[in-house]
Write a structure and sequence with these properties.
Elements (H helix, E strand, L loop, with lengths): L2 E6 L5 E5 L2 H12 E2 L2 E2 L1 H12 L30 H14 L5 H14 L34 H11 L3 H8 L6 E2 L8 E2 L10 H8 L2 E3 L8 E3 L6 E2 L1 H8 L1 H12 L1 H16 L4 H7 L1
Antiparallel strand pairs: 1-2, 3-4, 5-6, 7-8, 8-9
Helix pairs in contact: 2-4, 3-4, 6-9, 6-10, 7-9, 8-9, 9-10
Amino acid sequence: SHRSLSMSCPFGFTAKSYEKESDLRSAMKEAMINSKGNCCPFAMRLAWHASGTYDAKSKTGGSDGATMRFKPESTDGANAGLDIMRDIVAPIKEKFPDVSLADIWTYAGKMSIEETGGPKIPFSFGRSDDEDGKKCPENGRLPDASKGAQHLREVFYRMGFDDRGIVALSGGHNLGSCHTDRSGFKGPWTTNPLKFDNEYYTNLVEKEWIEKKWDGPLQYTDKATGSLMMLPTDLALMKDEKFKVIVEEYAKDKETFFKDFAKYFSLLLHLGCEEAMKAKK
């Protein structure tokens, strides 16, 4: 096999390495960051949504299988526009046929953080691609940005995460912007949507957020400039006492946030990977 066992990841699964990883990474970087733009935030969303369907009780969903290629998962409203990102990384599969699409999508997510100044994300190769959509999770398993703290807990606890994981993974919003033709929402969370840092948290803590006056769904804008935005699920982190303490901690301490994000995002990318789960028990 082209895959060789390497050192154990700190999160309980045995990391499988890939001997052509540096070539793969170069090819992916070329596809993701070029004269057409930087699609790291988009890549993070693909990896997140491919993984975040996991149900720890039924052991269904997750990143193994690359099932977003099939209905009903491809039609989930939460995944609107992700076909574009899947097309961007599709040529990588042709260049590296021995790497699964499931590995490519999640590896693109790892890279999206590392290439924008974020922490190193522990990663294991070894996912496989399903041949059909029989194992597609039902739609509606991903977070709904229009809801509150209870909804966040339902979705993330179902995956096996705790409150700290919820607040850390919400930090994915340090990257990118919302687009009306995808999520229906509009605008960036931070002043530099292509830089992964802890500004999302400092903005939550320090800025005053007011309802945006527009024809779209309920979202918030910063009172001072009107150039930034937050979603109802973002502000839910400040309304809930347990979440708020963690937001404030991350706002003060970027290193702690980076350490936690690396841990939780790595776990997210490996949800539903049998081998990883077996080693974890």
